[in-house]
Amino acid sequence: MWKKHIFKILLFFCIVSFLIVVGLIFHYVHEKNQRVRVAKSHAQQETIQAALQIEQALNALSSIAHTIADDISTGKLKREHILTRLKKTLEITPNMFGIGVAFVPYVNNPQVRQLSPYYVNRKAWQHSPKLLQVFTIPITYFDTVKQSEMITGVVFVDYLLSDIKTLMASLKLGRSGYGFILSEKGVFIAHPIEDHVKNYQTIFNLAELYHDNALSRLAEKAINGKSGVIDHIDQVTGQAAWIFYEFIPSTHWSIGVVSFKDVLETTYLQRRLIWISIATVVFLILLAIILFRADKGDRTSLWTVVYSSTIILIGGIGYLWYITQTGPIKKELGSTMIVDKVGLQQFLTTSTQQSSPEKESYYVPTGVFIKSIEFVENNNVFLSGYIWQKYDSNIHRDLSQGFILPEAQSTQIIQSYHIKENQTEVIGWHFQTTIPHQFAYTKYPFERRKLNLRIAHQDFNKNVTLIPDLEAYGVTNPTARPGIKRQVVLPGWLVLRSFYNYQSHYEDTNLGLENYIGHQNFSHLQFSILIQREFIAPFISNVLPLFIAASLLFALQMWLGRTTTFIRTMNALFFGVLLAHIRLRGTITTPEIVYLELFYLVVYCNILITTLSFFLYTYEVKISYYRYGLIPKLAFWPIIFVSMFILTVVVFYV
Q1: 327 CB contacts (<8 Å, ≥6 apart)?
Q2: Do 602 and 457 fall into the same domain?
Q3: 3-class SS of residue 635
Q4: Cα–Cα dist 587/573, whole Å
Q5: How many domains does the structure of the chain reveal?
Q6: Which of 185, 356, 402, 430 is deepest in the core (most CB within 10 A)?
Q7: What is the C-alpha separation between 519 and 323, in angstroms, rounded?
Q8: The CATH number of the domain where 528 resides is what?
Q9: Are residues 530 and 541 both part of a single domain?
Q10: 585 and 449, same structural domain?
Q11: More reliable by pLDDT, 73 or 371
Q12: Which residue range is the domain that position 575 belongs to?
């Protein structure tokens, strides 16, 4: 009778757990879909807004060219007045590099038409035609004999591609992706990879190179004047992304915005997945108990449930590991990540409002390129590479030129180059530095580390803010790892991201300087690198021996009463596990208990339980002697893996 009641109780809890799983999954999917809709809508609005900005900027130039062409066609603008008109137009039009009028036979040869007497630009002709985008508007007259419009010349407007790049950089795309522009033939006019533009690379070439049918379909739609969105694996960063594309009518161009999907991943969603995994494990274990009728007490059924539950728990632990490895990065308090010009300007505006107006503010563009990374001992990081700064001779004339690395333990800095172009001086230094860090080992071997290179200007008594030289990088999205050599090698670690950020620091001293700037309400520029440990090697060297030890321990449990060497074997197992534990502690110099170390504690507890069950069985205590020690045998693996599962949840949920 009691067995029927047990079955009904198990069935009730199984149904309840199933409903909880369904509810949690539904809530998670609804929440994530909502975030997807918001993110897609936001990215689409960014694309439309970017297209409108480019449309407005370039349409103004096209309108000017049309007006001049119409005035020449109607005779309103005489040839002797063309050059004066062009000069005045250039003076009042900020985004225009050059403007000219070419009459036949100059029309068919762009190289020759630049020598036309009706041409003016902002500088002497020093730029390669590759760096110019020319807008051409025909000058016509009506031939009464042929009864048709005849072309006598063109009005052309020169617009620097570097200005288009600047315009793209001003858009708020860096945090979630990047933008590009295609001509009506699919040629890249703007792209983070400058070689695509300089080499007249087309989107069709990239689609063919990467065998990307989705990109090819996007190209066809874009050059046909359509707008939309596709799912895509970005070739620049290797991430899953959306590509939004929008047609620009005035130029027949198309703008594309690559928006990465990783912005959808949040700590909140990660914790929802952990709750789903907990509920799923409970439901599957209860389902296995019901399906195999463990309530009947049949030995075969009980062992089937034990093995099924063990496999379910192992799967649950593995899934929690996967969530941890692929989960989002937690944001640090007091840290502001900078990935685009818009974000930088917003931060500078806010920090300027908070800073004291008594001191004049200086902003020095600073860039970093890391060539090598190495761990020295456990908590010291060796970095080498280049740091450069840009000084304007008018703005920065009262500043010295140079920087310091305040948190470095040892540093070697050698100037590598010093180039002056017009009013801008670019100075680059090669550096080697060792920086101490305080790393947390709690989640070893599934931990992530943030390596910080803090940079400060050497003029302590002046209000100098170093700003990241974002223009020096193609893609500023952190997953593209800007500022790091692509072939950088860091054994045992994966480089996930790199980015600039401002970190608030509080110092309770002015270093003896009355005018010291930097000890209160001041954010310092940092170049940060996020890395993640490759867990396979620590897993094999630590978990695999533990599993073998646990298997041998289980064999001893199964042979209770049938072996005379139990104590000696148990001693050997204990000292083997202890030596492995000591070796693990020798590789990690930290006073805290790490995640992997908890597995050793579970095995120690099972050694005690197995030893206790041996003595209880030897003295024929009922609970241990029941059915030849069946209870401790059945409970062996569930105790281990339930403990590991609970410990994994506790460690990774926080």
Answers
A1: 265, 267, 270
A2: no
A3: helix
A4: 22
A5: 2
A6: 430
A7: 39
A8: 2.70.170.10
A9: no
A10: no
A11: 371
A12: 535-654
Question: What backbone torsions phi and psi does residue 584 show, to the nearest 5 degrees?
Answer: -60, -45
264 assigned to some structural domain: no
**Token pair 């250039």: residue:** 90
Listing DSSP states for 465-523 in one string gives EEEE-GGG-S---GGG-TTB-TT---TTEEEEEEEEEEEEE--S--TT-TT--SSSSEE
- Helices (H), ranges, 499-594: 536-538, 544-558, 566-587
Q: Are residues 339 and 435 in the same domain?
A: yes
105 prior amide bond cis, ω within 30: yes
Which residue type does 393 have?
A: S
Q: Label residues 101-129 b or e (16+ Cβ within 10 Å = b).
A: bbbeebbeeeeebbebebbbbeeeeebee
Residue 400 burial (CB count, 10 A): 11
Same domain as 544, residue 524: no
Q: What is the pLDDT of residues 594-646, one digit of tens each?
A: 898 899 999 999 888 888 877 777 766 655 545 566 777 888 889 999 999 99
Quote the distance between the C-alpha of residue 77 and its chain's center: 55
> Could you give the 3-state DSSP secondary structure of residue 26?
helix
What's the full length of the chain, in residues?
654
Residue 552 has a CB neighbour count (10 Å cut-off) of: 15
| 498, 436 contact by CB (below 8 A) | no
Same structural domain, 613 and 597: yes
pLDDT-derived band at 284, boundaries 50, 70, 90: very high
My answer on whether 366 and 400 are in the same domain is yes
- Evaluate whether residue 551 is within a structural domain: yes
Looking at 534, 554, 571, the residue that finishes a domain is 534
Name the 3-class secondary structure at 10: helix
89 residue type, one letter: T
Q: In b/e form, how buried is each residue of 224-246, taking b as 16+ CB within 10 angstroms?
A: eeebebeebebbbbebebbbbbb
Token digits of residue 172: 């708020």
End residue of a domain, out of 493, 515, 534: 534
| Contact criterion met (CB below 8 Å) for 165 and 131 | no
Give burial (CB, 10 Å; 0-12/13-18/19+) of 588: middle
Q: How far is CA 44 from CA 54, 228, 545, in A?
A: 15, 9, 52
pTM for the structure as a whole: 0.72
Residues 382 and 518 in one domain: yes
